[in-house]
């Protein structure tokens, strides 16, 4: 009787994960000091009345745009590899995909969710 490959993976991967976690727990150095045990691990003392710093949402928006377009490029690879084998239907589905993404991007810019501003005005 032949054991299916997926069954081996479902047994081997959890075993390997627990084995590596166990080795890490046993062999990793554990030397906590005062700064590591404090709420702020960076070592800075707490400023009374302020628990967080100012963070501009612009960086978050840029990262979300990068993620969306990165996934778009990832979904473009299978089409680019098999472009000679797909027929007109496959090509039209890819064009429709890019059209929907373009409409979403234009709507985000039009609604003001993404504001392209000068970096000197952020400060």
Automatic annotation (TrEMBL):
Main location: membrane
Alphabetical UniProt keywords: Electron transport, Membrane, Mitochondrion, NAD, Respiratory chain, Translocase, Transmembrane, Transmembrane helix, Transport, Ubiquinone
EC numbers for this chain: 7.1.1.2
Intracellular or extracellular location(s): Membrane; Mitochondrion membrane
Class of enzymatic activity (EC top level): translocase
Membrane topology: Multi-pass membrane protein
Record-linked InterPro entries: NADH_UbQ/plastoQ_OxRdtase_su3, NDAH_ubi_oxred_su3_sf
Superkingdom of this protein's organism: Eukaryota
Keyword Aminoacyl-tRNA synthetase in annotation: no
Function: Core subunit of the mitochondrial membrane respiratory chain NADH dehydrogenase (Complex I) which catalyzes electron transfer from NADH through the respiratory chain, using ubiquinone as an electron acceptor. Essential for the catalytic activity of complex I.
Annotated family: Belongs to the complex I subunit 3 family.
UniProt protein name: NADH-ubiquinone oxidoreductase chain 3
Source organism of this protein record: Sanghuangporus vaninii
């Amino acid at each position: 009787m032949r054991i299916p490959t997926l069954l081996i993976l479902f047994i081997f991967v959890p075993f390997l994960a627990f084995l590596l976690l166990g080795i890490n727990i046993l062999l990793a150095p554990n030397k906590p000091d005062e700064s590591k045990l404090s709420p702020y691990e960076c070592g800075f003392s707490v400023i009374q009345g302020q628990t967080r710093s100012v963070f501009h949402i612009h960086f978050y928006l840029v990262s979300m745009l990068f993620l969306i377009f990165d996934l778009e490029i990832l979904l473009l690879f299978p089409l680019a590899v098999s472009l000679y084998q797909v027929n007109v239907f496959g090509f039209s589905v890819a064009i429709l995909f890019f059209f929907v993404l373009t409409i979403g991007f234009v709507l985000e810019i039009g609604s003001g969710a993404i504001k392209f501003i000068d970096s000197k005005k952020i400060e």
